[in-house]
């Protein structure tokens, strides 16, 4: 897209201009920090969807969009898009008993396992459901891989490994090496088992292939589940009766008592000829009540209508939600504030809205969307993608933003995952123009491409990326960046300590947001269309609507 970017240089006076020469004085680091401080304050109660914290968040975002000078972009001329969800929460105690090796073991929910359900039922009641190890739980005909081999899972619990077979092998195999495919995601494990009629799924937690520790699983597993509102029939088809995770130590004990070795079974699961393994006499009984209620949460939307091609849309997005109030940490703190994840991304959307509104009117329409319920499974983005406010076949690109650094500037910027999309090259080009570099995702094995809101749009064929911070710190280099990242994920990811502090340094956050502006202003002011590259699973989807963009 080099010609596109050169034309953008003329429009903005050259992409290599200093950031404070952008309209409105450029992306303001102090404003970014101020937005994060307010959104991650205790008053917002962790910004859980369908909570008092949501209302405060929506009010703040609308206020800031108005101040920025953008127009309402939501439904019926308003600032929001209603997203109807179902909230399902365990109501009361969870009774779970594992029978194996002739003995019963009571399981503690949140400690040994996490157990939940999105089925349209009031009570989850499984009695002596057999356990079957199905390896990675993947059926991928295009990769000549089938872990199920025709096993009948009706009435049974599938025990599944997280990630995919390539993670644990030294050489790339059927699944693109250590770069996680969608087959490695926990969401896929549940979906595939539901298609096969399983009574339940237990995913074995291991920190490295999951890319997060048990504390993250526990935090999510003890919180309410959310889903897009569906018919009862669709909900039954989409969801197993019981789903959750189990600690690796429990899995090792389970396999041993069933006369098997867990590590040997894992190694067998890394082969194409793997076949499901019945876990001896292992049976699981589960009983808990479920409270289900319909709730409505909201995407918040501002826009600038294009001067020449108003039907062509560029989207800037970030999710506003965090995890609300939950289990107390060691200090007694219960509010999971989501400062880095993802008040930083929302702050970028607000600043981009202000800067674009202060400049010349774009040729294409710009949407600035703060999406809801990302932490519940990309639900706000999925709902928008299914009910778009502007046609997806004329949506030029989605520039999503996540988890910018509070630790100062880096030499590089990164995007999440390996998307095989031209937008990655565009980000690299604008970074070079500003004397910086672009780094492909340094942590492909974490599967971040499938864990951010841009994925909801990519699945519909819309070129999309999520931009985030690089690791090459000006102070300390890559080693310092990796140390900061690893500490954050080990200690504060989805935890109460993800908070704003007086030491917050948003200078790198501002520099990264400026590069998103550079890509966005180019897209906003020409007729070119970003594209998926050969090898992308989304290229064929986008090509079906090519005629709309002629």
UniProtKB/TrEMBL annotation:
<feature type="domain" description="Peptidase M28">
    <location>
        <begin position="299"/>
        <end position="515"/>
    </location>
</feature>
<dbReference type="GO" id="GO:0006508">
    <property type="term" value="P:proteolysis"/>
</dbReference>
<dbReference type="InterPro" id="IPR045175">
    <property type="entry name" value="M28_fam"/>
</dbReference>
<keyword id="KW-0645">Protease</keyword>
<keyword id="KW-0862">Zinc</keyword>
<dbReference type="Pfam" id="PF04389">
    <property type="entry name" value="Peptidase_M28"/>
</dbReference>
<dbReference type="GO" id="GO:0046872">
    <property type="term" value="F:metal ion binding"/>
</dbReference>
<dbReference type="GO" id="GO:0008235">
    <property type="term" value="F:metalloexopeptidase activity"/>
</dbReference>
<keyword id="KW-0479">Metal-binding</keyword>
<keyword id="KW-0378">Hydrolase</keyword>
<keyword id="KW-0031">Aminopeptidase</keyword>
<dbReference type="GO" id="GO:0004177">
    <property type="term" value="F:aminopeptidase activity"/>
</dbReference>
<dbReference type="InterPro" id="IPR007484">
    <property type="entry name" value="Peptidase_M28"/>
</dbReference>
<feature type="signal peptide">
    <location>
        <begin position="1"/>
        <end position="18"/>
    </location>
</feature>
<protein>
    <submittedName>
        <fullName>M28 family metallopeptidase</fullName>
    </submittedName>
</protein>
<dbReference type="InterPro" id="IPR046450">
    <property type="entry name" value="PA_dom_sf"/>
</dbReference>
<keyword id="KW-0732">Signal</keyword>
């Amino acid at each position: 897209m080099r010609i596109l970017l050169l034309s953008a240089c003329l429009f903005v006076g050259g992409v290599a201009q200093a950031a404070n020469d952008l309209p409105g004085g450029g992306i303001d680091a102090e404003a970014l920090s101020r937005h994060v401080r307010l959104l991650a304050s205790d008053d917002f109660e962790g910004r859980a969807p369908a909570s008092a914290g949501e209302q405060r968040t929506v009010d703040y975002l609308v206020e800031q969009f108005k101040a920025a000078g953008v127009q309402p972009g939501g439904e019926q001329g308003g600032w929001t898009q209603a997203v109807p969800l179902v909230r399902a929460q365990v109501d009361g105690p969870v009774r779970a008993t594992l029978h194996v090796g002739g003995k019963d073991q009571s399981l503690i929910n949140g400690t040994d396992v996490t157990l939940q359900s999105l089925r349209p039922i009031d009570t989850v009641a499984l009695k002596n459901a057999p356990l079957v190890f199905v390896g990675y739980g993947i059926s991928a005909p295009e990769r000549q891989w089938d872990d199920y081999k025709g096993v009948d899972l009706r009435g049974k619990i599938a025990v599944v490994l997280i990630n995919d077979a390539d993670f644990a092998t030294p050489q790339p195999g059927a699944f693109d090496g250590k770069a996680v495919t969608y087959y490695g995601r926990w969401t896929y494990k549940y979906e595939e088992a539901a298609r096969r009629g399983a009574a339940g799924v237990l995913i074995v937690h291991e920190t490295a292939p999951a890319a997060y520790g048990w504390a993250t699983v526990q935090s999510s597993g003890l919180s309410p589940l959310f889903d897009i509102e569906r018919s009862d029939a669709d909900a039954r088809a989409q969801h197993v009766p019981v789903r959750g995770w189990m600690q690796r130590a429990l899995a090792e004990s389970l396999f041993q008592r069933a006369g098997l070795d867990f590590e040997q079974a894992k190694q067998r699961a890394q082969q194409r000829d793997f076949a499901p393994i019945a876990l001896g006499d292992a049976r699981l009984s589960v009983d808990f009540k479920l409270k289900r209620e319909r709730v409505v949460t909201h995407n918040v939307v501002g826009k600038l209508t294009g001067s020449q091609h108003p039907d062509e849309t560029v989207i800037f997005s970030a999710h506003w939600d965090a995890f609300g109030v939950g289990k107390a940490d060691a200090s007694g703190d219960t509010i999971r504030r989501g400062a880095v994840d993802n008040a930083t991304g929302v702050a970028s959307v607000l600043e981009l809205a202000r800067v674009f509104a202060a400049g010349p009117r774009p040729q294409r329409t710009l949407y600035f969307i703060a999406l809801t319920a990302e932490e519940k499974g990309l639900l706000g983005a999925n709902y928008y993608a299914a009910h778009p406010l502007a046609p997806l076949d004329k949506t030029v690109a989605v520039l999503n933003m996540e988890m910018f650094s509070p630790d100062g500037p880096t030499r590089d910027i990164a995007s999440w995952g390996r998307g095989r999309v031209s937008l990655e090259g565009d980000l690299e080009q604008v970074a070079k123009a500003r004397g910086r570099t672009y780094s492909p995702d340094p942590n492909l094995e974490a599967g971040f491409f499938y864990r951010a809101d841009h994925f909801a749009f990519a699945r519909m064929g819309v070129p999309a990326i999520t931009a985030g911070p690089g690791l090459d710190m000006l102070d300390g280099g890559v080693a310092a960046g990796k140390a900061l990242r690893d500490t954050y994920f080990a200690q504060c990811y989805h935890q109460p300590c993800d908070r704003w502090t007086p030491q917050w340094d948003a200078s790198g956050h501002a520099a990264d947001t400026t590069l998103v502006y550079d890509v966005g202003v180019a897209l906003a002011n020409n007729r070119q269309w970003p594209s998926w590259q050969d090898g992308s699973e989304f290229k064929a989807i986008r090509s079906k609507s090519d005629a709309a963009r002629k």
